[in-house]
Amino acid sequence: MQHTPDGNSVDSASGGQTRAPLADASAEPVDDRDDDADEHLPSVRHRGARIVELLARVAGSPAALIDLGEAAGPVVFAHEIGWAEQLADAWQAPQQGGPLTLHATQAGTPLAHAFALPFALSGREGWIATVVPASEAAPEVPSDLLQLVEELGEGWGAVRAATQLWVERLRCENSLAAKLIDVSGVGTLVCELSTGELQASARARDILRREAVANMDELLKLVAPHDRIALHRALTGKDGFGRITLECEVVPENGRPMAVRLRIQHILHQGMPTSWLATLEDVTDHWRRLKEMQSLAERDPLTGLHNRNRLIRSLGAAVAEARASREMTAMLMIAVADLKQINDIHGYSTGDLLLKYIAVTLRQQVRATDEVMRIGSGEFAVLLTRATSEEGLLGRVQSIRAALASSIVVGVHRIDLRASIGFAIFPDDTVGGIDLIAATTYALNEALQDGPRAMSRYRPAIRERRERERRLIEEITRALRRDEFTTFFQPKVDLETGSIVGFEALCRWIHPARGVLTPGSFHQALTSPVVSAELSDVGLVSAFKAAKLWREKGLDFGSISVNLSATQLARPNLVEIVEELMRRFGGAVSEISFEVLENVLIGDNNTTHDNLRALSSAGFTISLDDFGTGFASLTHIREPYISEVKIDRSFVTHAGNNVRDQQIVAAVVQMARKLGLKMVAEGIEDEQTLRKLRAVGCTVGQGFVFAPALPFAEATEFIARQHRILQILSAT
Question: Residue ranges of the domains in the chain?
Answer without folding.
Answer: 2-161, 185-288, 301-467, 528-730
